[in-house]
Amino acid sequence: MAVFRRLTQLFSATKSFSFDLPIADPEPNLFHSAENDAVAASFMLFTLNCSTFFAKPGFYIEDLFMRDFYRTKGFVLGKMQLSTAAAKGEIAGSLDSALLVPIQISHSDKGTSQLLTLNQSATLLECLMSCWREDVLVLSCSDKFLRLSLRLISRYSHWVSAGLATRKAGNAGSTPGSEWAISAVPDDFIYIIHDLNCLAERICGDFLGHVVVLLSSSSSEVLDLVKQSILEGGVSLKDLIPEVINSIIQTVVEKSVEDLKQLKGITATYRMTNKPLPVRHSPYVSGVLRPLKTLLDGEQATAYLTRDIRNELVQGAALEITGRYYEFAADLVSVARKTESTLQRIRQGAQRRAGASSDVSDNNVSDTDVSDTDKICMQLFLDIQEYGRNLSALGVEAVKIPAFCSLWQVVAPTNRQNTISF
C-alpha cells in the first residue's frame, strides 16, 4: 500500500508539473495516423506499463520507473511540440513579413503566365509547401499544420480584400498593412488577378495532391475533410477576383470622367453664337475610352489576363463609363433646354412690353432656324455615334448597354430615335 500511495503522489506531482511546461500532453487520437512514430510508441508503451504497474505495484521500483519515464516523455514530447511551434512561427512570420512591404515583382521573366508574379504570392506558396515538407511535418501534429495552411491562405486573402477596401475608402490608416493599395496602379491589380488564379490552381491541384499523399494512412473520412478544407481555401482566393476587377474598372472610369467633363464646353460653343449645325464629333470623344484601351494594350494585360477576365473587364468598364456619359449628357441637355425656355420667355416679355405683335415676332423666325439646344443635341448625337464605334472596336455592343440607348433617345433627332446605327 505504501508503494501504491507513493505512485499516486508521483502521478499527482507529475500532473501538476505538466501544466508548467510550455506544452500540454497530446490527446491520444493525435497518434492514429503515425504507426511508426516514436512518440506514438512511447505513448502506447506507457499505457501498457502503467496497467501492469497498477496490477502489480511491487513489480517496479516506482521512483526509478516514474523518473525515467517522465524524463523521456517530457524530452520527446517537448522536443516534438517545441520544434513544431518553432516551425509554425517561422513559416507564419515569413508570410507576414512579405505582406507588410509594398507590392514587389518576384521574377524577371515577363510574359511567363505560369509563374507567380508577386513576391507576396510566391511567399504564400512557399510557406504552404514548407508546412508539409518532410523535415518540418510531424504526422502526429498534421492537424496543426493543416490549420496553419488554411490560416496562411486566409491571411493572404485578407491582405488582398483589406487593400481593396482601403483603396475604395481612400483611407490608408484604416487597416494596417493595406497601405500598398493606395499607391497601386491598375497593372498591379492585373498581377494580383493572375496570381489569385495561379494560386487557386496550384492549391487545388499539386498542393492538395501532395498533402493527400502524406496523409494517405488516414481514414477516408479524414481525407475527405482535408480535401474539402483545402479546396475551399483555393475557391476563396478565386472569389476575390471580381473585387479586384471592379477596382481596376473604377480606376479606369475615373480617368475617363476627366475627358467626359469636356462636355460642358459644348454649351459654350453653341450658346448665343451663330455657328451652324455641327457635322463631326468633338475631339474629347477619342479620349473617353483611351484609358481602357491603353490598359488592355499594355504588356501586363496582354501577358496575364485570360480572355474571360479581359472580356469581363471590358464589359464592366464600358457599362460604367457609358453610365457616366449618359449622366453628363442628359444633364447638359436638360440645362440647355431650361435655359432656352427661360430666354424664350424673357424675349417674349420684352416684345410685349415693346408693343410688338405676335405676328411680327413669328415672321422674324424662319422655319429653317435651329435653336441652340438643337445644335447641342446634334453635337452630342455625333459624339455618341463615334463613341459607339469606339465601343465596337473594343468588342462591346453599344445597343446592349441600357445607358447608351437612353442617351440615344435624349440627343437623337426625331427621325433617328427608333433606330440605333452608327
UniProtKB/TrEMBL annotation:
Ranges of compositional bias, category Low complexity: 348-368
Stretches the record annotates as Disordered: 348-369
UniProt xrefs under InterPro entries: COG2, COG_complex_COG2_C
One GO CC annotation: membrane
Domain COG complex component COG2 C-terminal: 90-384
Top-level taxon in the UniProt lineage: Eukaryota
Gene Ontology terms: biological process: Golgi organization; intra-Golgi vesicle-mediated transport; protein transport
PANTHER family the UniProt entry points to: CONSERVED OLIGOMERIC GOLGI COMPLEX COMPONENT 2, CONSERVED OLIGOMERIC GOLGI COMPLEX SUBUNIT 2
Protein name: COG complex component COG2 C-terminal domain-containing protein
